[in-house]
Write a sequence for this structure.
């Protein structure tokens, strides 16, 4: 037993050994944004949404609570006076609901460009600039090259970017760090993790409905 | 007191041909009042044999491809005034003289360095702006001017060295009339040392007491008071291209020069601007005006260039533009923010302002909004959007405790979508199952948009959570108002 524990401590301490179910020890503690939902925090590697990377939330229909998954993390950011950008939301937002979820409205910037090219440009600039700690964006059909650029921009700025996409995105390969397919079953959220850095999920995560 | 003189010998030529100074075409400036005699010409013209003093007709006979432009004294004065405003970033005391500027740099030496270093800095900056010039440094303004005109290489900082340094200069550097110059040459005086040796009384009788006072002022024996130039509190500058261009890229080069001038002017004034106008000048059309608005006053020329780039790059010109005019008249007192020495990673308010300015410049003024809650029971009116600029004044108020926290969807449809009915039941991709409700909202009788609705939270077979309402008006009408995103 002693040799086993010695072996384990050796494996943990050595910086160049990576174990399959671990986040890389090179990354600092602040590389993730706490989700605010305990089940999700324990399931995701690093204990939260990845910072400096794209997270894709794929949902077949509106109204599944897709944005509500992210809102507790945004509320925590607003408490720290950090600005958050919403780029090209598909419908008008309801301020009382955001207030109810604990967001501070003056720290949320809603950017509505006129066309898709402007949305991509605005998203890239916001990600690269890095002064907004989180960005929520809705793009109609970005190509793989555009997604790669956005991923690089998110890495440059250290921003946690959330991209909400329709089911057609499943057919496309994407450089995002985390890809989640959201569906609701029996009054519960069901998250199928399609892609995740550092962990492999065999079963979907089940969460009670957030809102 | 130490004075730096900036002498622009080719100023009439430079103001008219600012960006083709090194071209191959011969350019000559003629004076319309004096029988069209050439007063200035560029090196290409000199190679063809043209020199100041010959008539325009003679010049045209020497070369066929000559660009002859009439002298524009008003433009020269305006340019010199603008340069004076620009040079106020180095010293507050700037005086204008004919074709030259006099800067009192004695007070700036402690901040800006030794005289030679300051002279190099100013020279380089002026060359970036596109103005060829000669400099001279002396303890008196007249002596500095004469050193510049004679291209005297050494810097004289002590007034005891002044008479010796002035001795070797030719009499052509003096600011006197043609008649006086002829008199001097008739007397056999070719250098200033010969003038200094003559008795002052007889010199005053022949050339005037004003002339003798000028010599005394140059040597430092009489005080020479120069009025500091006061800049008007507005900036207006323009540059013209030698030929109109249809693309936008060449205009960026002009814009950079204009912004460098503006930056120097603002630094000299200790001012910042919050709005800036740019006119695209066309040969035979009224100019197009573009406005740039900023969230906070700034005097940073590179930031302004970046923002103008966002604005100008997507433009396509329909007619060829021949120049740019940059102007503003709203100067505000400005003190630049100092950064924290240790905390280099915090994103200050300045950073988010810079991002928002860039986004607003390209996407338009109204594309960035902030939500605000409005005290109204009607859902469509409970959310207001205000432009992000005004949100700075809106304080972060505490959540209104009096308004009950009701369950509301994230997305509201505008306008609400009418639902199909089947067997008296509303349908959206199948039957709808009502989860919660009804919530009755009846409000707004006072402004004509009164609503009487019963709201329900419903779900369908895709497990979407929907917010629907039933109108209490006659008829069984159901509408979809929102999604719980």
């Amino acid at each position: 037993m002693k040799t086993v524990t010695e072996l384990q401590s050796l494996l943990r301490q050595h910086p160049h050994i990576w174990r399959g179910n671990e986040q890389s020890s090179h990354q600092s503690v602040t590389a993730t944004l706490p989700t605010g939902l305990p089940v999700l925090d324990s399931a995701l590697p690093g204990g939260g949404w990845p910072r400096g990377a794209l997270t894709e939330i794929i949902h077949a229909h509106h109204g599944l609570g897709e944005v509500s998954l992210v809102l507790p993390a945004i509320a925590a950011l607003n408490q720290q006076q950090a600005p958050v950008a919403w780029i090209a939301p598909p419908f008008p937002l309801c301020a009382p609901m955001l207030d109810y979820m604990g967001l501070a409205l003056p720290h949320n910037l809603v950017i509505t460009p006129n066309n898709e090219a402007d949305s991509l440009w605005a998203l890239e600039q916001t990600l690269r600039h890095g002064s907004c700690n989180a960005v929520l964006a809705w793009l109609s059909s970005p190509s793989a090259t555009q997604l790669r650029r956005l991923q690089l921009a998110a890495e440059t700025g250290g921003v946690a970017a959330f991209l909400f996409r329709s089911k057609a995105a499943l057919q496309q390969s994407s450089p995002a760090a985390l890809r989640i397919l959201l569906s609701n079953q029996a009054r519960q959220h069901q998250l199928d993790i399609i892609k995740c850095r550092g962990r492999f999920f065999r079963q979907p995560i089940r969460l009670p409905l957030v809102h | 007191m130490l004075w730096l003189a900036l002498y622009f010998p080719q100023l009439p030529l430079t103001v008219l041909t600012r960006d083709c100074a090194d071209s191959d075409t011969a350019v000559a400036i003629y004076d319309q009042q004096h029988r069209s005699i050439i007063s200035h010409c560029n090196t290409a013209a000199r190679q063809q044999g043209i020199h100041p003093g010959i008539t325009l007709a003679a010049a045209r006979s020497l070369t066929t491809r000559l660009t002859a432009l009439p002298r524009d004294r008003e433009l020269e004065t305006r340019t010199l005034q603008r340069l004076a405003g620009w040079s106020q970033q180095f010293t507050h005391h700037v005086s204008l003289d004919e074709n030259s500027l006099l800067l009192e740099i004695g007070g700036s030496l402690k901040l800006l360095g030794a005289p030679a270093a300051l002279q190099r800095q100013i020279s380089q900056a002026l060359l970036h702006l596109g103005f060829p010039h000669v400099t001279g440094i002396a303890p008196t303004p007249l002596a500095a001017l004469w050193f510049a005109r004679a291209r005297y290489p050494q810097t004289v900082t002590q007034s005891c060295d002044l008479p010796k340094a002035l001795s070797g200069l030719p009499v052509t550097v003096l600011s006197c009339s043609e008649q006086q110059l002829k008199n001097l040459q008739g007397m056999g005086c070719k250098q200033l040392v010969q003038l200094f040796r003559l008795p002052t009384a007889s010199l005053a009788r022949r050339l005037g007491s004003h002339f003798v006072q000028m010599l005394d002022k140059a040597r430092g024996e009489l005080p020479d008071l120069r009025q500091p130039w006061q800049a008007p509190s507005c900036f207006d500058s323009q540059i013209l291209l030698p030929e109109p261009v249809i693309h936008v890229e060449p205009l960026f080069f002009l814009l950079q020069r204009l912004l460098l001038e503006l930056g120097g002017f603002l630094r000299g004034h200790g001012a910042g601007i919050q709005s800036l106008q740019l006119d695209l000048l066309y040969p035979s059309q009224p100019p197009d005006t573009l406005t740039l608005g900023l969230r906070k006053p700034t005097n940073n020329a590179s930031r302004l260039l970046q923002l103008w780039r966002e604005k100008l790059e997507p433009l396509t010109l329909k007619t060829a533009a021949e120049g740019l005019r940059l102007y503003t008249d709203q100067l505000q007192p400005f003190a630049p923010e100092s950064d924290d020495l240790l905390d280099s990673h915090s994103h200050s308010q300045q950073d988010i302002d810079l991002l928002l300015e860039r986004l607003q410049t390209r996407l338009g003024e109204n594309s960035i909004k902030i939500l605000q809650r409005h005290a109204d029971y009607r859902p469509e009116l409970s959310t207001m959007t205000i432009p992000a600029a005004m949100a700075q004044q809106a304080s972060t108020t505490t959540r209104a405790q009096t308004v009950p926290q009701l369950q509301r969807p994230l997305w509201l449809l505008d306008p609400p979508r009418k639902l199909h009915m089947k067997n008296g039941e509303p349908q959206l991709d199948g039957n709808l199952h009502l989860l919660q409700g009804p919530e009755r909202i009846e409000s707004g009788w006072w402004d004509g948009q009164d609503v009487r609705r019963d709201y329900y939270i419903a779900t369908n077979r895709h497990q979407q959570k929907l917010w629907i309402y039933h109108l209490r008006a006659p008829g069984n009408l159901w509408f979809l108002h929102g999604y719980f995103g």
Summary: Chain A touches chain B through 46 residues (CB under 8 Å). Residues 25-29 of chain A have pLDDT under 50 and may be disordered. The radius of gyration of chain A is 18 Å.
